[in-house]
TrEMBL record:
This is EB module. InterPro entries: Cuticle_assoc_divergent (IPR053014), EB_dom (IPR006149). Residues 128-175 form the EB domain. It comes from Ancylostoma caninum. Pfam families: EB.
Length: 318
């Protein structure tokens, strides 16, 4: 749940922020003029005196003016509504509580037009589209790691488990046992990987469900590199030092030719020599992380001859 720091009667405190439909006495509703310390953009809520529930002004939003450290209320242009962090043209997303057939998630419908934005009518009830997530009876657009415009953490965690909405931007989970997650780019989008392993292991870890919380073992589905050499260009036998995951070059688009020492794309091979490999680009991505790979190259200097072109590791794709 998001918290919002603001000022009431001269005192600064933090309280749980209201969502649409929440009981007004159980949460705080941000108001214009409240103190703020972080760059945020959010819905403009109010307390409906008839229901004592938090409701929303469809065409208004709140922003934090960091120069004044105060919340300001803005209005969308005529005919626009504040949807998914922006003023947009289209149908009203919200309708007041207690109105039959309001078009919220699960409400009865006969046509798609009976439902609100981000929904369709499925077997007689309003259902979120596949790229939206249901939150408090409404559908919000799912957001990828690093993408801006989120209002709730669920928009982020629906794409990447345990990711968070910070300053209207989806961020990776914080860490596992003190090992931080970092954003990494792939051809299929941004993902979250672990910056390194434990106990001095510098190699970043793919985000796989086989990992336990201790990060003690590398899952069997991790792609191994059959062709690593030391600085003298001598083969490093598998199991000697470590059995390294496969490094790769994100700039390579040759998905059938295996290149040793991480100089090419993610290609499967059991032959340690450069040459024909097995196409696996449909299930593996070259995941890039500049800072993490710089640490790897520094730590493995004198042990492995990692290609200068290597800028990522091969991870199962999304």
């Amino acid at each position: 749940m998001v918290t919002l720091a603001y000022n009431k009667s001269g005192g600064v405190f933090s309280k749980q922020q209201c969502r649409i439909g929440d009981d007004c006495s159980s949460c705080a509703i941000a108001q214009e003029g409240d103190k703020c310390t972080e760059e945020t953009t959010s819905e403009s809520l109010y307390c409906d005196p008839k229901t004592n529930k938090a409701d929303v002004h469809e065409n208004a939003f709140l922003v934090c003016n960091l120069l004044k450290n105060k919340i300001e209320r803005k209005l969308c242009a005529s005919g626009q509504f504040f949807i998914d962090g922006k003023c947009r043209s289209g149908h009203v997303r919200y309708k007041r509580q207690g109105i039959a057939g309001s078009g919220r998630v699960g409400d009865f419908c006969s046509f798609n037009t009976d439902c609100l934005t981000g929904m369709f009518c499925s077997t007689g009830s309003c259902t979120c589209l596949s790229n939206f997530v249901a939150i408090q009876g409404y559908c919000y657009l799912k957001k990828n790691p690093g993408e801006s415009g989120c209002q709730y953490a669920e928009q982020c965690s629906a794409v990447w488990p345990e990711s968070r909405c910070e300053k209207s931007r989806c961020e990776c989970p914080e860490d596992v046992n003190g090992i931080p997650y970092v954003q990494a780019k792939t051809r299929d989008g941004v993902i979250c990987i672990l910056h390194s392993g434990e106990d001095g292991d510098p190699v970043p870890k793919c985000p796989l469900p086989e990992y336990d919380d201790d990060l003690l073992t590398m899952p069997v589905s991790q792609l191994r590199n059959p062709a690593m050499t030391d600085p003298d260009d001598s083969d490093v036998e598998l199991g000697e030092h470590v059995n390294p995951l496969q490094f790769c070059s994100s700039s390579s688009t040759d998905y059938t030719n295996f290149v040793a020492n991480g100089g090419g794309a993610c290609v499967y091979s059991q032959d340690p020599q450069n040459g024909d490999g097995v196409y696996i680009a449909d299930i593996y991505d070259c995941v890039t992380s500049v800072a993490s790979m710089a640490n790897v190259k520094t730590a493995m200097e004198g042990v492995y001859d990692i290609s200068p072109a290597a800028d990522g590791i091969c991870c199962p794709n999304r």
